[in-house]
Every structure is written in structure tokens, then in C-alpha cells.
Amino acid sequence: MKIKVENSLSSPVILSFSKEDTISAYVSNGGFEVLDDFIINGKKKEILSEVTKSDLKGRGGAAFKVGIKWNAVAKIESDKKFVVCNADEGEPGTFKDRWLLENRPFLIIEAITLCAYAVGASKGYIYIRGEYKNSIKTFKNALTQAYEEGFLGKNIFNSNFNFDLEIRQGAGSYVCGEETALLESIEGKRAQPRFKPPFPVEKGLWGYPTVINNVETFANVVNIIKNGANWFKQLGTENSPGTKLFPVSGRIQEPCLVEANLGVSLEKLIEEAGGVDGEFQCALVGGAAGNFIYEKELNYPLSYETLKEKGMVLGSGAVLILNRNDKKEEIVEKILEFFINESCGKCTPCREGYPILLEKFNGYLNGSVSMDEVLKLSELMFKTSLCALGQSSKFLFESYFKV
Ligand SMILES: Cc1cc2nc3c(=O)[nH]c(=O)nc-3n(C[C@H](O)[C@H](O)[C@H](O)COP(=O)(O)O)c2cc1C
Ligand code: SF4
Asked: Which residue, judged by its Cα, is nearest atom 4 of ligand 2?
């Protein structure tokens, strides 16, 4: 897979680290120095304050502030706490976490361990998508090396801090990536989302306070601590600081993973990926849970707040390019079929809603159902579904009908 850095990006965050084949390569490039410094000097509060000041937002789709979660777990008195890394990556068109797991495993291990130290957790899990056999193998190997070198396990850096990190293989459905369904799955149960509140920071894994963050979210942490929150905030936009990994695929000359400042335009991403294969029609941004973006929006900044202003989402950041020969309605049908198959069935609006929505959409295509009827149902599902799987079609249809 080709990896690109947007040309105007002077300080890539994640790609600034060189390839980590072995732990010694990572260490010789300054790896684990931050962990060493902060553990030896007992700087838990400093980790929390730097992450909070950085205003880093979760890269798994919901863009929730990382500092709020970490502080919430740190504050609670509990004899057990957990850190969980969400590496389930089931969003269609998304391959950023896989790349990180296979190319930056030690960066992820260091970040998870920093988090555990800051919030007071002694056990962590990384839940890796079951189909990612190679990622699991690479990460397993990296864990073995980290244990051998004493960066994980008992008395890390001769301190009294102990931390164990374990891989859990994903159970094979899209909804396993929803944070509470993922926790259920780790607990050995069927992966179905829980009612919230309580949120995982309060009652997470086996009822204990739990931080859960996406792989890419963790991938930002070491650099934030190393270079400071102010450095990080110079990247991206005011309300969406930092960079983002954008997996670009579909009708594109060079499908690739681009690291770019948040606020980058779709046009720039397309340029980095060698241009459109054919004539640009639109892009599906954010995967199945995302939305269509059109030619007139090619220069629009891709950041959490700018898209929100337009009633859109950035989601996982996946960019799927469609050319004029592609049938947008077929993509929508496939997405609805995907949601029907992946719905866990726990709540009625999603379980019953998606098959009806597909029927209505087909009715719209043959002229027997109005656009308003389709939009009304997706809006109802948005308001009443238990998790974002049942809520997603609102963004899809609002953007579908925009042109
Ligand atoms: C159906 C569904 C699937 C999801 N899949 C993933 C996933 O594969 N990876 C991920 O990080 N977050 C996924 N999420 C979002 C998580 O629920 C959660 O917001 C995320 O793990 C929090 O981490 P972050 O704050 O670092 O983004 C999914 C959500 C839903 C509703
Ligand atoms: S919205 Fe769908 S996937 Fe989510 S809990 Fe309800 S039935 Fe399950």
C-alpha cells in the first residue's frame, strides 16, 4: 500500500516515525523515551494535562475529546481499571488502523501504556479485527518483544507500575467495533451495544472504569507528550487539531493512505492519490456510516466542525471516489444490505427499519415512493436507534438527495 504525506504538511505526526520492524529500531529512533521519562519522574498529571490541552479528538468516528475520557477514568477510585484499544476496523473502505498495527506497533504499545499509567490501569486489551490475520501476527510479535525488553509486564522501568497488554481477536461483525459491544465481546458475550449511560469510563469492562480509544487516536499520543500540546495544536484547524489518516480508494489512480492536516480539502487528497480514474462524480467520505461529497464541495475543509456545520460527518476518514460511470444508487443499496446483515437486532428501529428503508429506497428509484418518505424514516431511525449503526442512514440519504 502506498503511503503519502500531504505535500504542505511540514510535521507529520504519525508518519514521522520510521518503520518499526524491530523494537531496537523503534528504541534507536527515540521510542519509549517518553514512557521512560514520565514513569521515572511520576508525571501522571502531566500526561493527562498535555492530552487534555492538545484537544485531541477520537479518530474512531465519534470525535469525542480524549482528555475528557482519560481524566474521568483517572479521577475514579477503583481497585481495577482497564485500557482498551479499538482495532476492530470494520468500516468499509477503511484501512488506516491495519496499516498502523502492521507498521507502528510499538508506537501504539507505548501510547496505550502511557494511558494506563496516567489513568491507573494495570491491564489492557487490544481488540483486533479477526480477519486481520497479518496484523494480529505482527502485533503479537511486537508484544513479545516489548515484554522481553521490559516495556510491558511487572515493574516497568524499575518502577512499581505493572501493566499487561493482551490481544483479543475480533468476533467478526461490524457492530463489534461499537465500544460497548466490543466490551461485551471481550467479556465473552455476544457483541451487542449496551444502553448508555453508564458510559465505559464509569462502568466499562466487567463493570470497571475503562478508557477505550481507537488505534489512530493512540498513535497521536506519544508525539503530543513528546512535543507538547501547543505543537500539536498548530496542526489541523482550531477545533480539529492534528492530522488525520485518510484511506483513499475507489476510482483513483493510486489508492493510498494519506496523512494530512485536518481541514484538508478533498481536492488535495485526490491530488495526493494521483488524480481521479475517469471523471469525478462524488466521494463517499467516512465509509458506510458516512456521506457523499460532490464536485461543488471539493474545496470544502474536511474537519469535524466544518462538516458538522453542513450536517455531515467525517467518520473514519475513508474516502471512496466514484466516477461518472458509477451508479450511486447501487452503492446506497449495498450499504443498506450491509446494515441489514450487520444489525445486531437488539433494537427495533434498526432491526425492522433497515429492511423497510431498502424497500422504500427501491420504491423511490421506481417512482412509487417520495424522497420525503425515505428521509422521514431515516430521520426516525436516527432519533430512536440505540447505536450509530441504526442512525447512520440519515447522513447517507441527506447527502444522496443533495444533488
Ligand atoms: C457500528 C459501529 C462500529 C464501530 N466500529 C468502530 C471501529 O471499528 N473502530 C473504532 O475505533 N471505533 C468504532 N466505532 C466507534 C466506537 O464506538 C467508539 O466511538 C470508539 O472506539 C472510541 O474511540 P475514539 O474516541 O478514540 O474514536 C464504531 C461504532 C459503531 C456504532
Ligand atoms: S442500532 Fe442496530 S446494531 Fe445498534 S443496537 Fe440497535 S439493532 Fe443493534
From this structure: 387
The helix/strand count (H/E) of the chain reads as 17, 12
Residue nearest to atom 6 of ligand 2 (CA): 347
- What distance, in Å, lies between the first and last C-alpha atoms of the chain? 33
97 grid coordinates = 488502523
C-alpha cell at 254: 493510486
Last residue of a domain, one of 233, 266, 281: 233
Query: Given the CA of residue 175, which atom of ligand 2 is nearest to it?
Result: 3
Collapse the DSSP code of 6 into the 3-class scheme (helix H, G, I; strand E, B; otherwise coil) and give the result.
coil
Domain finish residue from 181, 201, 233: 233
**For residues 129 and 90, is the Cβ–Cβ distance under 8 A?**
yes
Q: 110 lies in which domain range?
A: 2-233
**What does the pLDDT look like over 175-185, one tens digit per residue?**
999 999 999 99
Residue 389 CB–ligand 1 contact under 6 Å: yes
Residues flanking ligand 2, CB < 6 Å: 175, 193, 343-347, 350-351, 385-387, 389-390
Is-above-0.70 flag for pTM?
yes
Question: How many independent structural domains does the chain possess?
Answer: 2
CA distance 144 to 126: 14
**351 and 219 both lie in a single domain:** no
Find the CATH number of the domain harbouring 100. 3.40.50.11540
The finding on whether 212 has its CB within 6 A of some atom of ligand 1 is yes
Angle at 168 between CA 161 and CA 208, to 5 degrees: 55
- Find the CATH number of the domain harbouring 343: 1.20.1440.230
Instruction: For residue 179, report the distance from its CA to the centre of ligand 1, in Å.
Output: 6
Encode pLDDT of 53-90 as tens digits.
999 999 999 999 999 999 999 999 999 999 999 999 99
Ligand 1: which atom is nearest the Cα of residue 179?
17
Quickly list DSSP for 318-386: -EEEEETTS-HHHHHHHHHHHHHHH--SSSHHHHHHHHHHHHHHHHHHTTSS-HHHHHHHHHHHHHH-S
Cα 392 from chain centroid (whole Å) = 16
Nearest CA owner, ligand 1 atom 30: 178
Check whether residue 333 and residue 196 sit in a common domain. Answer: no
178 CA → ligand 1 middle, Å:
5
